[in-house]
Amino acid sequence: MSASDVSVFDSYVYVAEDVNSLVILKVNPGKTSSLFADFSSNITYCCAPLSVQFNDSSQNATAWNWGFGDGLNSTSQNPVHTYFSEGIYTVNLIVSNANKTASKTSTITVLETTGSDEESSGEDKEKSAGVISRKETGNLTKESKKLLSLL
């Protein structure tokens, strides 16, 4: 038998010893060592304080190191992090296993928190309404009309 008599398909090796027989050997390739970093979050922008649930969907990772862009870190697989200040934060996930390291980045946008109705003067409400109306595009939805009526 020569190397040309052996073919590999999926997880089995088919060996033809001659035209009248076939030997099938199952091959167990074992766990792949490919490492891929990936994650998602339940929210990517809102007003401060903004609590974000990060969900790891990396493949073959055994260790996690999150950088939240505000100087704080976590080694949890699926951390929750709260942003208290306005800004655009770059979130970095570095995953590793015994052989490799991989990373992924994404951004979280935290908007300025506006005061409560009791704290805002009429002038402040008008300014806020102006900002909101400039950001609106197209027709107003029920939700945006409701929001504008609160201001």
Short description:
By secondary structure, the chain is an alpha+beta fold. 15% of the residues lie in helices and 41% in strands.
Record keyword descriptors for this entry:
single chain; 151 residues; alpha+beta; Immunoglobulin-like; 5-stranded mixed beta sheet; 3-stranded antiparallel beta sheet; 15% helix; elongated
Task: Give a structural overview.
The chain is α+β, with helices and mostly antiparallel strands and 151 residues long. Among the domains are: 1-30, no CATH class; 39-111, Immunoglobulins (Immunoglobulin-like, Sandwich). The chain contains 2 helices and 11 strands. Strand 1 and strand 2 (12-18) form a beta hairpin. It starts with 5 loop residues before the first strand and ends with a helix. Residues 6-10 and 117-138 have low confidence and may be disordered.
